Amino acid sequence: MITLNTGILQESLNRPILEKHVIDKIILQCIVHHARLHPDGIKVFLSSNSKEFGKREVTEVLRDTGVEYFNKSQNLLGWLQS
Asked: Could you give phi then psi for residue 2, rounded to 5 degrees?
């Protein structure tokens, strides 16, 4: 469980991506914040919302924080089995 706090909200306001999608922007920032708190763990994000989370600038942010993004559960399962 990732707890939303004022720091996460402030960071999301400072990140110039997903400007028209406030909820997705907050979700992204929660994931990034959690990933930074746990740099050594394996981190995976599954969302079929590839229209927003599949954007290059979003996938770069996720990758830079060590989060593997999947837009299909089948791809995630394949990754887990490899």
From this structure: -105, 120
pLDDT tens for the chain, 82 residues: list them: 888 999 999 999 988 999 999 999 999 999 999 999 999 999 999 999 999 999 999 999 999 999 999 999 999 999 999 8
Q: How much is the pTM?
A: 0.89
Alpha helix positions (H), the chain: 6-14, 22-37, 50-53, 56-64, 73-81
Task: Name the helix (H) or strand (E) containing 46.
Answer: strand 43-46
Is the CB of residue 3 less than 8 Å from the CB of residue 29?
no
Q: Counting Cβ atoms within 10 Å, is residue 39 exposed (0-12), middle (13-18) or buried (19+)?
A: exposed
